[in-house]
Amino acid sequence: MISQSFTPSPTLKNADTLHAVAKALVADCKGVLAADESTGSIKKRLESVGKENSDDNRREWRDLMFTAEGPWKNSAITFEETLMKHNAQLSTRFKGTPLRDVIKKRGIIPGIKTDKGTNPLPRTEPEETTTEGLDGLLERSQDYYNAGVRFAKFRTTYVVTASTPSQLAIENNAEIQARYASTSQAAGLVPIVEPEVLCNGDFTIERSAEAHIAAYTHLFRTLTLHKVDFSDMILKASMVVPGDKSGKVATPEQVGAATLHMLSKTVPPLVPGIVSLSSGLSEKDALAYFNAINKLAKRDHSSASWKLSFSFGRALQGEAMKVWAETGDVKKTQETFLLRAKWCWEAAQGEYKGEAGEPSR
Amino acid sequence: MISQSFTPSPTLKNADTLHAVAKALVADCKGVLAADESTGSIKKRLESVGKENSDDNRREWRDLMFTAEGPWKNSAITFEETLMKHNAQLSTRFKGTPLRDVIKKRGIIPGIKTDKGTNPLPRTEPEETTTEGLDGLLERSQDYYNAGVRFAKFRTTYVVTASTPSQLAIENNAEIQARYASTSQAAGLVPIVEPEVLCNGDFTIERSAEAHIAAYTHLFRTLTLHKVDFSDMILKASMVVPGDKSGKVATPEQVGAATLHMLSKTVPPLVPGIVSLSSGLSEKDALAYFNAINKLAKRDHSSASWKLSFSFGRALQGEAMKVWAETGDVKKTQETFLLRAKWCWEAAQGEYKGEAGEPSR
Amino acid sequence: MISQSFTPSPTLKNADTLHAVAKALVADCKGVLAADESTGSIKKRLESVGKENSDDNRREWRDLMFTAEGPWKNSAITFEETLMKHNAQLSTRFKGTPLRDVIKKRGIIPGIKTDKGTNPLPRTEPEETTTEGLDGLLERSQDYYNAGVRFAKFRTTYVVTASTPSQLAIENNAEIQARYASTSQAAGLVPIVEPEVLCNGDFTIERSAEAHIAAYTHLFRTLTLHKVDFSDMILKASMVVPGDKSGKVATPEQVGAATLHMLSKTVPPLVPGIVSLSSGLSEKDALAYFNAINKLAKRDHSSASWKLSFSFGRALQGEAMKVWAETGDVKKTQETFLLRAKWCWEAAQGEYKGEAGEPSR
Amino acid sequence: MISQSFTPSPTLKNADTLHAVAKALVADCKGVLAADESTGSIKKRLESVGKENSDDNRREWRDLMFTAEGPWKNSAITFEETLMKHNAQLSTRFKGTPLRDVIKKRGIIPGIKTDKGTNPLPRTEPEETTTEGLDGLLERSQDYYNAGVRFAKFRTTYVVTASTPSQLAIENNAEIQARYASTSQAAGLVPIVEPEVLCNGDFTIERSAEAHIAAYTHLFRTLTLHKVDFSDMILKASMVVPGDKSGKVATPEQVGAATLHMLSKTVPPLVPGIVSLSSGLSEKDALAYFNAINKLAKRDHSSASWKLSFSFGRALQGEAMKVWAETGDVKKTQETFLLRAKWCWEAAQGEYKGEAGEPSR
């Protein structure tokens, strides 16, 4: 990690604390659990395993994850109701405690998703997106900080075709991410900047790399323009894969090499860490690809100064949610969840040997 | 150094050879001797020690440097006449051999300055500069390649005040550097991209950092736009110092921290190496600052993936030229020159302990 | 005005209606009354004449303006409560009618301010601003459209010093304006894009021109990127004046020439009209400067294709509000208000001969 | 045309003279004869009519054009040898006089092509181009000025496909044009900026409009950045047509509407004039399209402040060259040439009624 001995001007108050949180988020390959599904997103997840999207079910599911005690404790990004509204019910130890306090008591760093979702950019063909959530963001972020939150997450998305991401989408989303990041830092929150290049479409892995490079290069250039401290932020990056409608499958080694090439071309060394996202990938692929990235990074051991970690949602939650829906057995569900945490931890060291769906040996 | 296992598209032929040269240029702290003074620049140097700017004197001085045999052998950037016209005369071993062949026989990687110098940007206040040299550059570069040259150097300059470098200067010079770099790579030459932020003026070290960050960020963004392979290029960077008319002096530690911060914010890890330039600095300051950069980089040992080396002109040549002018003694001159090479080599490891002007202990 | 016979792709539905509204807004020099003061801004105005900022007073003041019947009927930008909440009380004819319907019945085109005010851009020195209001803008705009609103207004501001507007402020505000404009057009509202270069500070008229040119050039470039139809928008532009702390006073002719030069350098002919804003200027200066612009534009009669009109707040309302506060006399107040409308109408033709504060002859 | 009463800072010396030349170039629909074919281009033209590309033939052909006396006298862009080397031979009046002096004596404003042709941009797919000619441009331009030249021309080209012109080509060529234009103005030459969107390819007229808009918007934004005086320059613009391999034919009215829409969206009113180029079009189409543009501009008579004129090469020279090659009859050739000049003059007023290949009625 890069020395902090030079203080850029104008000084950011809380820079030291922000930097400590940023480092902690990517330390020891612990990862960041993405449990920040909006009410709409969690609905899809719950319904896919046959559960109703009730307040109770959402509460129980998150309660279950945050009270699952085991060695593989992640930081966690939450959705607003988890943080501000729900109380723990399942465990004896925490019964009645607000989940927000459960998280803090267990030494998990709490974060929150502050974006308000994507929307179409008018008159784009194919349709591209922008993200909302900047109105009143400083005040909201300060409220979250006062409630104990220490980092925030904001997601923008990019559509890949022969002619997209367009310059419009690239500039618009970079501007939005940069304003979110500088506002978060001003409020004492470490921004996790998540520019997701969607894996949906008919394109090669080379085209995906190109799209990532165009989007991320402009993003970091704009973060600099907005005076964002790179030492006090985390990048949540998509992996470089062929489009899901391309009829092509890449090996984990190809995905690892392409992803590492792309990150090394776009992410300045001052950024303390990068967490991979798994959106759109199966648990199995997410683990295999992420493992390959780390294996390669380890081999070329001076390859990058940033730490590589993960921030998975479905890859950590999916199987466990199935068990929960099928059995209702809290203990079994939590074990399933913790096993995924262990696999991710192994993959973060490039040492994941098992196979998703089966215990790793 | 970053893995080369992913091939970006469209493929650059010769990528492997280019990458090998780029790595060699920054390997083992050997450094790159900047002996590419144009006829106008060498005139000033020679006259400052009381020598006439004759073809003979220019030949002899360069002959002397390129035949100085010792353990600290650098790569070398040459001016066109050195490469294409002059023969060695001084040493028995190489007498009559074109300097170009002397360089190759001694295992020095030969490079050439391909820019044609800076010119004012019309209507800028204060006056800022652009650089010429792009007309016919592909053909010239191919000719140099055929003559054995393996890398090229191109310099742009930036003026620091409260309102500069202007967006105009930043964009213009980035565009020019990027076109030079992509053209060089197309011709088989590793580009040494030299965006020099001038140290002349009345500004703080923080303002220098800010100016560097603005210029270098846009530069790398534009290199990406021009599809320059970062694995196959070198950056020649200025150090972050207070302006020479600011009345302020920075400690080597401050210069080291500010320079490393700036580089870590702007230079992607895929770039194999960065060489420091010493223009405008005394031999003593150049060595002390460069040493501090490396000491700091070593301490935070994962601080960056790129190699840090040097490409000095005056700091390597200055003292030796004085000895040559005063004594005419070839051996003594070469010893003085080689001692500077040793000091630079020590500083490149953060272990320079002596003081310029005195032997290092 | 420019021919609409070519349909750019992708087609904007409602383009014809939008274009008709845009043309109507700048037709016949009628002008656009800026009565869109937020609750905070109207407070300052009311208190400056000794009136309490009560819901009643706000209602009465706006009631008074919208029911003032006379030959100089403007279009009007309103604040949300005017449009969505207040009813007319003063006139026999409209008593009890929602102001929204009064406006429509009187043939005034109703508009609404959709921005949510300016906020500081973090870490800018001097402090520069961004504007909020994009979250949920499409839905809000559609609601306004359904309530009869036909145009919207969104204001961003720029601070002028030797080093600002910064590239950050220029890019951020252009991006925001462009997204507002494309969203408004998608919802059927003609966007009045208002990039106000603030007149506060110590700068020359030449520096003001330079700042305007930098900001407006990037703005129109970004409007194009966002596929905004220029035929279906209006620009609300500040006038080019020396800073109010510069100790310099420009003649109306100088302001006219500088403003017209700036607009002719930055605003494409496809834009149907430009309305001048008077913020920060006295009633007297606003009228004199605006008159000079139109006089000059008329003399060089092919000078521009866009129509030049006005969108004044204080210059139309200020004196009338004083009369209202002092006398409570509705008729006298409305006459004062209508006289300003007449003066503005004269100035829009470059024929304003009187002096603010006195009847024009 | 726009008032010049405001002087932007920093002042451009010779602004008045430059502005007078710029206005003269587009006055009275006289047009600008593009006789600046490079030695390579004129070769193709000559050989297509069966003439050898000899120095003599080039001299005679240009002699013939420049001494053709008639009412439709154009300004003229020349190639370097015409201006600096060739003497008139054909006419009694001018025999032995350098063509440069013939041009001046006949009251034709002489211009020169200062670009050095297009070259590929490395690694672009499809291959896009950049233009060379900036090295030493200030000195060359000053030499031309001293030889009596009053304007210069510089051409860049853009390739249209689904994914091009790329951001790379757009930025690179805008940067080059802007530097050419500011350098020309500094040397006292009015720049004719020629960004030609090539009509070769398989694309719709809408895609052509889109490509033009993207390229020209960025061009004018960059001309502003380079402090180019818009009052003292001319734009040489391509017409918006479907690609020649699209299998689609547009009517003159469609081309006129699309071209006027595009120009009105991108060219600020301060630019005194736009000349259309005819490259790639037949004489017949060039005349019909250009006529339609002017007819439409006249109908919507306030449509634009800039003057619309033409700068044709083949459309003026093609038929005459055939006559010359076939008959060797100077008088007949000159009559053919002058008839085209008359047609163009008619079309510039939207009143061209005849058909190319036949006398206009």
UniProtKB/TrEMBL annotation, chains A, B, C, D:
Pathway: Carbohydrate degradation; glycolysis; D-glyceraldehyde 3-phosphate and glycerone phosphate from D-glucose: step 4/4. It comes from the Eukaryota. The keyword 4Fe-4S does not apply. One of its GO terms (molecular function) is fructose-bisphosphate aldolase activity. Pfam families: Glycolytic. SUPFAM superfamilies: Aldolase. Belongs to the class I fructose-bisphosphate aldolase family. This is fructose-bisphosphate aldolase. It comes from Neolentinus lepideus HHB14362 ss-1. The lineage of its organism: Eukaryota, Fungi, Dikarya, Basidiomycota, Agaricomycotina.
